[in-house]
# Entry
Amino acid sequence: MGLIDRVIGGSAAATALGNAAVGVAEVFTANATKQMEASQAAYIAALDEHGTEFQYLRPGRFDRFVNGLNRMPRPMLALGTLSLFIYAMADPVGFAERMVGLAYVPEPLWWLLGAIVSFYFGAREAYYFRNRAAPVSPLLPQDENLALREWRGAGSS
# Structure
């Protein structure tokens, strides 16, 4: 260790040389620690900003109205589909005329309607999928071995 100290010029020079190497390396690749710290700070800032949006617990009249509107599409689609069946039974000729009119709707417009409905219900499904509760499994004693217990039970029968 003394030889290296003499060649480089002491521990202060070795430290300076190491810092210089780190500085040169950071030019070519980012410092992972600093990058993680910056991303964590950005994440905390985003959470704080999001939290200030929901600091008031009681929604106003407009918020309740918009929440009610957001709950309308699914029941309206379901009831609308059922009403089409009722309309087809009550007035088959009128229903057939309107279905012929639907045949004139261009195919790209059907694709657009399908995409809108799929994204609406897909986003809703994804929301509930992400926020589902984890299944709770029964806790077993730490020293219990299920395979050994089964083996012992098979030997006694």
Summary: The longest helix spans residues 107-130. The chain is about 80% helix and 0% strand. The helical segments are 2-8, 11-28, 32-53, 61-70, 73-90, 92-103, 107-130, 146-156. The CA atoms of residues 86 and 102 lie 18 Å apart.
